[in-house]
């Protein structure tokens, strides 16, 4: 009987143990300098709220929009070219009006924001993964490995970013069968944006790794025969993350702009899967015919997303800079 009560008491402690641990972690985050800096930075709070609003409305777009802009059967041509709701000719529920095909502008913007955010985030993660790995290898080993990686980066930096992206997109699209071009449009865009973007991360990490590899804790790890990959991942990489996080945040906005630029030039997302860049390209054709809302509202949404991301990046750069503390 005593053993049973002890077992029950032990199980209860095991079940309740994670709760105080989670509370302790939340308290540590709440009391951290980074959280205090965020709470006392009005522009960062505003940008975070704005970006969260855009992300949530894009995520729940199927439940808050009057139509699915990807469903051609839902488009009604007799409801085309309707102006915004505050105009005398406006109609409910088309708050921001419709385009020449009867597509609701608000629905297209929310669905397009989802595509732009996903492509921007995925391209940053892909470029960060490649750049972080190659930068650690180049900075730790040095020698001919460093020369090969950095010269490859120099070749990519010597060519315009948009030219590389267009070349990759054109080659990938021409190599695919017709039925797969639209299906793989998003992965191709992610690849096209990530390939010329990894160099910045690699150069940043390489500079930090070359400094860290000469320090005593790395030399001590080498003396006890710790494997190089463990030294790079567990010792050097944590000390290189601060500038990388700042660069990744700022490049997130650039990646969204790059996707919009490629789609605007006609080598990005197809018209039946419109991103913000595709919507701007389509609306630009009707800008001077009086249908200004087709291009203005997607452009405003794109500006708000990039502005909020850049404001968060500026705050993060200042908050993680030890010279400004």
TrEMBL record:
Q: What is the lineage of its organism?
A: Bacteria, Pseudomonadati, Pseudomonadota, Alphaproteobacteria, Rhodobacterales
Taken from the record, one Pfam family name reads BPD_transp_1
Keywords from the named record: Cell membrane, Membrane, Transmembrane, Transmembrane helix, Transport
What's the protein called, per UniProt?
Putative peptide transport system permease protein
Q: Where is the ABC transmembrane type-1 domain?
A: 113-313
Query: Does the record's keyword annotation contain Ion transport?
Result: no
Source species, domain of life: Bacteria
The parts of the chain that form a coiled coil are: none
The membrane topology noted for this protein in its Swiss-Prot or TrEMBL record is: Multi-pass membrane protein
Q: Does the record carry Mitochondrion as a key word?
A: no
Name its cellular compartments: Cell membrane
Membrane spanning stretches: 44-64, 115-143, 155-177, 183-201, 240-266, 286-307
A Gene Ontology term for the protein's cellular component = plasma membrane
Q: Which PROSITE patterns match?
A: ABC_TM1
- Could you provide one GO biological process annotation from this protein's UniProt record? transmembrane transport
Which family does the similarity line name?
Answer: Belongs to the binding-protein-dependent transport system permease family.
């Amino acid at each position: 009987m005593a053993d049973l009560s002890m077992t029950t008491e032990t199980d209860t402690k095991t079940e309740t143990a994670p709760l105080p641990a989670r509370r302790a972690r939340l308290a540590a985050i709440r009391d951290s300098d980074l959280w205090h800096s965020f709470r006392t930075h009005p522009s960062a709070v505003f940008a975070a709220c704005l970006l969260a609003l855009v992300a949530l409305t894009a995520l729940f777009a199927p439940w808050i929009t009057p139509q699915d802009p990807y469903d051609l059967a839902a488009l009604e041509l007799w409801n085309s070219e309707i102006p915004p709701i505050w105009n005398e000719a406006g109609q409910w529920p088309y708050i921001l009006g419709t385009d020449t095909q009867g597509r609701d502008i608000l629905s297209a913007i929310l669905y397009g924001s989802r595509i732009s955010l996903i492509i921007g985030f995925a391209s940053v993660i892909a470029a960060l993964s490649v750049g972080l790995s190659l930068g650690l290898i180049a900075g730790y080993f040095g020698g001919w490995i460093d020369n090969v990686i950095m010269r490859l980066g120099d070749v990519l930096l010597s060519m315009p970013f948009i030219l590389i992206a267009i070349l990759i997109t054109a080659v990938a699209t021409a190599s695919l069968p017709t039925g797969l071009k639209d299906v793989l449009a998003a992965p191709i865009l992610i690849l096209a944006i990530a390939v010329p973007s990894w160099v910045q991360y690699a150069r940043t990490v390489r500079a930090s790794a070359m400094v860290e590899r000469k320090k005593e804790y790395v030399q001590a790890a080498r003396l006890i025969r710790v494997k190089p990959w463990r030294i790079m991942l567990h010792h050097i990489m944590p000390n290189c993350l601060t500038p990388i996080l700042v660069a990744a945040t700022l490049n997130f906005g650039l990646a969204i702009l790059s996707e919009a630029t490629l789609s605007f030039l006609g080598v990005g997302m197809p018209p039946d899967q419109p991103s913000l860049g595709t919507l701007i390209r389509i609306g630009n054709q009707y800008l001077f015919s009086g249908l200004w809302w087709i291009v203005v509202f997607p452009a405003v949404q794109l500006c708000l997303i990039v502005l909020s991301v850049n404001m968060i990046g500026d705050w993060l750069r200042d908050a993680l800079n030890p010279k400004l503390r």
